[in-house]
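Lab notebook, bench 4. Still working through the backlog of constructs that have no structural model yet. Next entry is a single chain of 158 residues. Request: give me the structure tokens for it.
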Amino acid sequence: RMLRANAKLAAGTGVPEDRIMLAENGVSVDLVAGKATIAGAVPVGKMFVDGLITGDVGESTLGERLILSSGFVAVTVVVQRGTGRVVAPPHLHSRGFSEDPKALEPAVQKVEAELESLAAENVTDPVRIAQAVRRTVGKWVGETYRRQPMIVPTVLEI
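Model written out:
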């Protein structure tokens, strides 16, 4: 679209149509004796630059950075091995949200309620507990902040 828009702009400024060339990325144009001709093509593609590193940043890294741009929440819960009962209050640590330390208290309460529910259902698998914590915090953050941060739950069994 931009090529055509630029061609139209050139024509609008008085450049003759036969002197306007549309060349896609990678097309090699020779300018000799006042005449432009297409001379070939060179391979082109996306090149990501990350600080001093060129080309070593992939789509997955960019996807991770997009998620991190929405914030980060680390959740640590301590449960009793074998019973899943809560041993200590959940600890939430965030980046990219409110600086008010009390801002996450409602999420802590929701995590506590979810942990009690899981213990009542005899759920003791740390993976299932972590999934439930991630889901609970993610729902709360989504409803409260309209964001989808990276949520990293850690379940410690003692």
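Notes after review: The helical segments are 2-12, 59-68, 105-120, 126-145. Residues 128 and 145 are 25 Å apart (CA to CA). Flag for follow-up if needed.
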